[in-house]
Amino acid sequence: MNNSQLRRMWIVIMGLVFATFIIIGRLVAFQIIQGKEWAARTSDELVVVARPERGTIYDRNGAVLAANGADYQIGASPNLIVDAEEMASQLAVILEEPRRQILADLEADTPFVMLSGRVSSDVAERIRALNDEYGGLQIDPLPRRFYPQGELMCHTLGYVDFDGNGGAGIEGYYQPELAGEAASATINISPFYAQESVIAREGADMVLTIDRSVQYLVEQTLKEAMVEYSAEGGTIIVMDPRTGAVLAMASEPCYNPDDFYDAPEEMLFNPIVSRQYEPGSVMKLVTMAAALDSGTVTPETTYYDSGELWVGGHRTVNWDRAAHGTVDMTTLLARSLNVGAATIATWMGADTYYDYMRRFNFGSPTGIDIMSEAGGLMPLPGDEIWTESFLATNAYGQSLAVTPLQMVTAVSAIANGGELMQPYLVQEIHSSNGTFIHEPSVLSRPISPQTAKQVTAMAVTAVASEVPEAKIDGYTIAGKTGTAQIAENGVYLQEDTIASFIGWLPADNPEIIVLVKLDKPQVSPWGSTTAAPTFAKLANELVVLLGIPPDDVRLRDDVMALRN
Asked: Of 19, 71, 78, 455, whose CB count within 10 A is highest?
């Protein structure tokens, strides 16, 4: 072996030794120094997450009220764009964004740019067609909640934000049930192991007590009444007093749950269960029921109405500022006399009167299955803010606060023979664990069936003699108007009122009870000339839509059934 060959051999040996040291060094680094990190990277284990579908909400007849859909986000890879100038021109029209900005993004020296955060499926389809021609675009779905009925039932349904959280209404109250539960597991993806399934708990489907057709009628009637009487806002609730099932509930102004992010925050607020107001003279139904049930009065009991009554330093006067002389209880209710209501409350005394107010659930939430229900305000003797004058003013619906739902629920006990039913909105829940069907439940029994029958008869007389605006042909209506002053900053407004009417029919065996409430009507301040005719207009349609027969047909059928 000559010197040249020997030299080359040593060069090869040295190279091999050097390579060996590098390999050993890298092995030490990979297996010892960075061992844990590389073990994690090259593990046969993989974390798998399964995300559930949110449950669908249906009306009582199976119409879809809330379902799942998708928006899309649009991105682009600038280095894959064939003609940035032309694509920017077309995207500017589709996305309704400045062409200059889009072109700058498409020509950016970066692997990926975001062109739009959320667009509709229609926009995504137009962009998909553009991508087929020019390439370089990326269209990714983003889950979102979809409301096919638009604004219908906005306050009742609520909305779902972009993180999948219910923000109001049923969506918020039933968030855990509707959202379901995601599942995750670490599984071994080695072919030597059996593969495990990761299954999420899907969101439950729900069937409401509400009929979409009845709801639409109620919302249209409310909107028309607000225009006709120049009202600032309003609420209508239709309930079955026998079960507490809500057939429709609406409040205006409304919003589109699809576009909740564009609605003013105060519009997302649910007035039906969250906004408290002084109910006015509809409270006289409850006051009269308490007086009769406690034995304080009978329907024939009389008092002398001098036109004013002083209680606790407060002067109560009648709405017409008149003195009505000797008056019996039926006339008191029919003429809606404040002095009479205050008088019988003082006859009962604070302990008895407020005991009945608690029985009717005032000052407490009803427990309805909807988000953010308020409890109302019913000061009691001994409370810091209660004064003796409240005994008089509460009797005719002032100096206390209720929600519309609380008020109609309380009066429904009179319509329902003395049983106060818990109101509810969800009739059925369908989940992986089976089907839950709501069973009506009694919240309380504030008065006896006999008392309920007496008050109903008095309420029928009140409508027949004093509120012809609330009558509808063929049906006996029981009800009461309310015209309440509005307190702001501790002072009652001189001009504005809340006009309301609560009525139920058929009076002797009611299938529906309806509350109509109009906020600050300008055409007339009185419930008898605004809310009562709105009730009659709505009730005329409801009896047809719900198949409630006129009194003569119903009573004839009852007689025939007894004969058979």
From this structure: 455
